[in-house]
Amino acid sequence: MKLPPFDYACPGTLSEAVQLLAAGDGDAKVLAGGQSLVPMLAFRLLHPTQLVDLRKLTDLRGIRISDNGVTLGAMVRWREIEDDKRLATAHPLLKAAIAHVAHYQIRNRGTVGGSVAHADPAAEMPGIAVTCDAEIAVVGTSGQRVIKAADFFQGPLMTALTSDEIIVEVRLPAWPKARRWGFQEFARRRGDFAMAAAAVFYDQDASGKAANAHVGVIGVGDYPKRLPAVEAILNGQTVDEATIAKAEAATSSAVEPQDDIHASAAYRRALVGTMVERALKHAAA
Ligand SMILES: Cc1cc2nc3c(=O)[nH]c(=O)nc-3n(C[C@H](O)[C@H](O)[C@H](O)COP(=O)(O)OP(=O)(O)OC[C@H]3O[C@@H](n4cnc5c(N)ncnc54)[C@H](O)[C@@H]3O)c2cc1C
Asked: What is the pLDDT at residue 132?
């Protein structure tokens, strides 16, 4: 189907972009890579009167790595994460997860900010943001605010963003060199959205026991979540076969997926347990 009619603007500054959004009074939408927005327009699921293209906002580009962690500009594209060799040590979990996003052409255009704002429950970037305690910096007419990823995602395609706010960057805390991690995803075809995925990491104390365990799941609820019950099973333990089996069982009990056209709830519950099991085995190895 053809897109509905809308006005188009391509501002040169962030403040101009915010003003254009605010003037739209809820009917204006930001355009980043267009890989989710344009299909939604084509299906007439959205009818914005104004699109505000972020392509000229160079401030929203670039991957910054420092002692404080990794900062991804909102307009960083999947391809840039894939190609950035520094991330292999600065944030290997992010790099591994983003390798599962979509297909070649979509990875050339889709952006970090677009994915986080779109908030698909099966998308990798929101899942990594939640698992890693990311902060999401946004700018609107009332100035800048920083939202914790855990508070940002509120439901399928629903976030804490107000209609005049633009995501400027996603900040991931520093990644210690010795951290153990794993990412596992099951999709029907390579590049499809996840049927279920798991992102895990933990540090180790002096005796080799797990500490600071983070277990995040994707595609098995309205938005990505950490599973404190599973993290509690790992913390203070050696991550061996027995602990991993307990974590797998606890994962399946902790999630509440829905039946949908792709899979039954029971299938996803079992699948995500297996994803956590495999991710932990990768981490432990
Ligand atoms: C066939 C196909 C397969 C895909 N598979 C996957 C997949 O496996 N995993 C995955 O994660 N994604 C997948 N995607 C989605 C893809 O990653 C998108 O690029 C991404 O979800 C949205 O990013 P975008 O830059 O294209 O945003 P756009 O489509 O431009 O925008 C999406 C939404 O975010 C808003 N927005 C964009 N940028 C900002 C910002 N900076 N601040 C505030 N709001 C903003 C827009 O207004 C819009 O509502 C797939 C897409 C397609 C078409």
From this structure: 98
C-alpha to C-alpha distance for 56 and 116, rounded to whole angstroms:
20
DSSP lists the bridge partners of residue 143 as 140
User: Would you say 18 and 138 are in contact if contact means Cβ atoms under 8 Å apart?
Assistant: no
C-alpha 268 to ligand 1 mean position (Å): 24
- Contact, 218 vs 122, CB < 8 A? yes
- What letter represents residue 134's amino acid? A
Q: Which two tokens stand for residue 246?
A: 């307990």
Q: How many whole angstroms separate alpha carbon 114 and alpha carbon 35?
A: 8
Cα(31) to ligand 1 centroid in Å equals: 9
Name residues contacting ligand 1 (CB within 6 A).
Answer: 29-37, 39, 54, 74, 101-102, 106, 109-111, 113-115, 117-118, 123-125, 161, 166-167, 191-193
pLDDT-derived band at 156, boundaries 50, 70, 90: very high
Q: Which of 57, 54, 62 is nearest to 29 (CA)?
A: 54
Cβ atoms of 102 and 110 closer than 8 Å:
yes
Nearest to 38, CA basis, from 58, 53, 60: 53
